[in-house]
Amino acid sequence: MTFKLGSVVLFILVTSQALEVAYEKMEQISGFDVLESTLRVRKYNRTTMVLNGTLIIKKEMNNTFVIHSNFYHSPLGNQQWNHYPMKLPARGICEFLYSIYDEYYKYIEDIVNLPKKGECPIMPREAHVYDKVFPSEVIPPVIPKGLWKAILTAKVEDVERTRIELIMKVYSDKFY
């Protein structure tokens, strides 16, 4: 089998693109009696979008609040969503938070007044997020480009208590 130099160079360029992720929108859909989010996406400078605001936990939460996730992909970026067969395991909110601490603590350590690892139940509080850029390096390079919608739902005994929707843009920006 013979390869032409041009096809090899093209293959290397296509497979070595770095993926960048930018916040597009953050919105709380339901559950304002349990949780209130003033988190919003704003433009930090000409090229960077950040998450900024406060997450107000109004009620004591323990592992009876089970977090479920669903992901949707819009390959053309036109918000025609296709359900994506990827999920985070459903687990209690304390266990969910512990898993984030285990894997991604360096990305969330500067969030003010976040519950400490091992703190369960999570008592009412305000957690403040200041100019948080999405850490693109946590995204595997095989994730398709386009718009992504993540829906996180907290349920108690299969009854929805709160729902948050996050939309992100995944694109390739650089060649290595």
Folded structure, characterized:
The chain has 176 residues and is of the alpha+beta class. It has one domain (19-172): Ganglioside GM2 activator (Ganglioside M2 Activator Protein, Chain: A, Distorted Sandwich). Helix content is 15%, strand content 45%. The protein contains two helices and ten strands, in the order H-E-E-E-E-E-E-E-H-E-E-E. The strands form two sheets. Strands 1, 5, 6, 7, 9 and 10 form a six-stranded antiparallel sheet that branches. Strands 2, 3, 4 and 8 form a four-stranded antiparallel sheet that branches. A hairpin with a 2-residue loop joins strand 9 and strand 10 (159-175). It starts with a helix and ends with a strand. The model is unreliable at 5-15 (pLDDT under 50).
SSE topology:
Layout: H1 5-15, E1 17-30, E2 35-37, E3 40-43, E4 49-57, E5 66-74, E6 82-84, E7 91-92, H2 93-108, E8 125-132, E9 146-156, E10 159-175
Antiparallel strand pairs: 1-10, 2-4, 3-4, 4-8, 5-6, 5-7, 5-9, 9-10
In short:
The chain is an alpha+beta fold and 176 residues long. It has 2 helices and 10 strands, in the order αβββββββαβββ.
**What is the averaged pLDDT score?**
86
* Helix segment tally: 2
Structural class: alpha+beta
**DSSP strand tally:** 10
What global shape is seen? globular
Tell me about the largest β-sheet.
6 strands, antiparallel
Compute the number of structural domains: 1
Provide the gyration radius in Å.
Answer: 19 Å
CATH class call: Mainly Beta
Tell me the CATH architecture. Distorted Sandwich
Q: Strand-residue fraction?
A: over 45%
The CATH homology group name: Ganglioside GM2 activator
Order of helices and strands: HEEEEEEEHEEE
CA distance, first residue to last residue: 27 Å
CATH fold-level topology: Ganglioside M2 Activator Protein, Chain: A
Could you name the ranges where pLDDT drops below 50 across 5 or more consecutive residues? Answer: 5-15
Helical amount: 10-25%
Signal peptide: 1-18
Pfam family, one: DUF1091
Keywords: Signal
Organism: Anopheles sinensis (Mosquito)
